[in-house]
Design a protein that fits this description.
Length: about 220
């Protein structure tokens, strides 16, 4: 019987294949390596995106010609480095982080990457910071990577504050394998999927925990 978890007869690439692909297509320089290692070294949770996801975010922003970008969930600044490197001179990445210690580590990493001039880490709860940030919009892309139960709130803000053709990107949209469960968090994440599909042309990319990508429709 066909395995419902497989695609085209292939289940998952093994660790050696993933490492090969990461090293070839998403290699770390000194600044990315430092940001990737920072969580473990400095006692933060090591829950940043993987190298290939970071590189993919960067390429998406380049394809969209993004200049003004919002990230929700900075941690140590690893994904912020990938994304800020996609921006042209004068572009800016606003990254929101509720934990002041995480924000401090992220600022150190962004400075080491020589990206302090094109990044702004805003400390606080994204539900409070996003309404303040609206005045800096409209934005070209919004990347969600923080508290999963609030994705519908962040997604609604993105729908209002992205330009037509702007990108909504959400990480962990399979909710660590719990997306179909009967829980408030899973219902919220399903609402995010449905809301995104209404206002955006969407695809859910089967990364290990699902990456939703949406392009804002004009009407
Ligand atoms: C998965 S990590 C972000 C990883 C980062 N995007 C990367 O890949 O390098 C999630 C971060 O979101 C932060 N966070 C959680 N809830 C938040 C909220 N309500 N507002 C802002 N940040 C929040 C956490 O403190 C944590 O640092």
């Amino acid at each position: 019987m066909a395995d419902p978890n497989s695609r085209s007869g292939v289940r998952y690439a093994d660790g050696a294949i993933l490492r090969y692909a990461d090293e070839l297509h998403a290699p770390h320089d000194e600044a990315l390596a430092a940001a990737a290692e920072a969580p473990e070294r400095q006692g933060l949770p090591a829950i940043q995106v993987g190298p290939s996801e970071g590189r993919f975010l960067q390429l998406l922003l380049r394809l969209a010609g993004a200049r003004r970008v919002v990230e929700v969930g900075t941690l140590a600044g690893y994904s912020a480095i990938w994304m800020a490197r996609a921006l042209p001179t004068g572009g800016v990445l606003y990254s929101i982080e509720v934990d002041p210690r995480h924000a401090e580590v992220a600022r150190e990493n962004l400075t080491r990457a020589d990206l302090a001039a094109r990044t702004e880490v805003r400390v606080g709860d994204a539900a409070e910071i996003l309404p303040e940030l609206a005045a800096e919009g409209p934005f070209d892309a919004v990347f969600l990577d923080a508290d999963k139960a609030r994705y519908p709130v962040y997604g609604a803000w993105a729908a209002e504050n992205l330009r037509a053709g702007g990108l909504l990107i959400g990480d962990n949209v399979y909710l660590f394998g719990r997306l179909r469960e009967d829980s408030d968090e899973a219902r919220a994440m399903r609402r995010f999927h449905e809301q995104a599909a209404e206002a955006f042309d969407t695809a859910c990319v089967p990364t290990p925990d699902g990456l939703l990508v949406g392009v804002r429709r004009t009407s």
